[in-house]
Amino acid sequence: VQLQASGGGLVQAGGSLRLSCAASGRTSSNYIMGWFRQAPGKEPEFVAAISWSGGSTYYPDSVKGRFTISRDHAKNTVYLQMNSLKPEDTAVYYCAARFGTVLLDSSIRYGHWGQGTQVTVSS
C-alpha cells in the first residue's frame, strides 16, 4: 500500500490542524493505520492508531483527548484531527500502515510509510 500524507502547517498554540493520509494500492486488505511523529534529534513517537473497521483506536497519554484518528474507506483516507496544539507537538508527522488486526505503537511493526508532513506549533 502506498501512502501520501498532507495537511501540515504552522499554527499557534491552542489551534487545530487536520492531517490526511491517502492510501492506494492494496487497500482491500485489512490493515491498521497509524500516525507517528519525529522531532529533530528525537526518536519517532507513536501518536495514534486505528483498526480496519475504525471501531478501535489507540493513543498515548501525550495526545489522548486532544487528537482523534478516523478513517474513510470510501476515500481510502485516514485523518488525524489535532486540537489544543502545543509547541511540543511540533514535529514531522508520518502515516504508516501494517497488515493485521492488532493496534501497535512500535514504529518497527509498520511496514508501509508515507512521506512526512511538517507541523509547527508556535507559542
Characterization of this structure:
With about 120 residues, the chain is mainly beta. Helix content is about 0%, strand content about 50%. It contains no helices and eleven strands. It has strands spanning about 1-5, 10, 15-25, 30-40, 45-50, 55-60, 65-70, 75-80, 90-100, 110-115, 115-120. The strands form two sheets. Strands 2, 4, 5, 6, 9, 10 and 11 form a seven-stranded mixed β-sheet that branches. Strands 1-3-8-7 form a four-stranded antiparallel β-sheet, with no helix packed on it. A hairpin with a 6-residue loop joins β5 (about 45-50) and β6 (about 55-60).
| SSE run | EEEEEEEEEEE
Task: Work out the helicity level.
Answer: under 10%
What oligomerization state is this entry in? single chain
What's the number of helices? 0
Number of strands: 11
Roughly what fraction of the amino acids lie in strands?
over 45%
- Gross morphology is globular
